[in-house]
Amino acid sequence: MRRADGTAAHRPLSDVGFGAERAERYEARLKRYVAASAMEMEPSGHATVHLDLLGVGARRADRTQAALAVAERFGLQVTLTGRRNTGARVHGEAEQVARLVAALPRVLHYAEELASSAARMYGRWTRSRAHSAYFAALEPAQRRAYAREFRAAAYRAVVKVLTGPLEAAAVPEYDPGRLPWDQAEAVAGAIAEYGWVDVRDAYIPAEAVRVLDTAVPSAPAPRSPGRGQLVLLGDLRHTRPRPARPVVVISGVRAGSSAAA
Fold first, then answer.
1. DSSP code, position 166
2. Distance CA 246, CA 160 (A)
3. Measuring CA to CA, how many Å separate 259 from each of 251, 253, 256?
4. 51 three-state secondary structure
5. How far is the C-alpha of 20 from the C-alpha of 193, rounded, in Å?
6. Mean pLDDT across the chain, nearest whole number?
7. Helix, strand, or coil (residue 177)
8. Model-level pTM greater than 0.90?
């Protein structure tokens, strides 16, 4: 599976290193982010998959928005599903859908890692002399709230950079005159710029092939009967009185009535 122009693609996020044990732990962590249904294949070569984003509360909502952005980067159509919009229906060219399913857990995990790097930098600020005056004025509950908000904003900033072309990233400069907890976009955006990868290549080809191999045919859409088809009207529920027995209509002529009528 190559790019559309036929060139070979580098596979970012595929080398976890440090042996089989660490690779096994990495694969286990990937299962915490998203659950995908079997891909439904259409005769046209397009396909649909249903994604359920995993997590709790605001973090789950942020992952859902991240999944939308990643899917759009793959050129796919996405519709939110579920009572709380924590699922997504993805439709498009079958190979691209398969690549997305293979890439999405890796991209979400990578975004979490980069956001955590930004959060650790924020944690160092809370203990540094340079920022001590800002944090000394906060109550413990305020410090925890600002830390949560910084982490969430950092994740969104990372996703924004990763799901766009690198040359189009508009990351604000760090401003020492601003409050530390208002600097998430600058800090996390810079980290994501430095660690940018093309998410469209962030899949293992064997995993994408496995998604294609386990695809199922899509259910045919129900069709309305055409002219001249037999239509059983006796079971239709409507406000008019039901006939005593089923009435069959053939090309607009009722069975049992005379042609002259």
1. G
2. 60
3. 12, 8, 9
4. strand
5. 30
6. 84
7. coil
8. no
Nearest to 26 by CA among 204, 218, 215, 219: 204
Using alpha carbons, select from 79, 75, 77, 101 the residue that is nearest to residue 88: 79
- What digits encode the pLDDT tens for the residues 196-226? 999 999 999 999 999 999 999 987 766 655 5
Residue range 101-150, pLDDT digits in tens = 999 999 999 999 999 999 999 999 999 998 888 999 999 999 999 999 99
Looking up tokens 């072309």 gives 165
Across the strands, what pairs with 250? Answer: 253
What pairs with residue 217 in β-bridges?
41
Helix (H, G, I), strand (E, B) or coil at 72: helix
Task: Give the SS3 label for residue 111.
Answer: helix
CA distance 72 to 44: 20
Residue in the block written with tokens 């009207």: 233
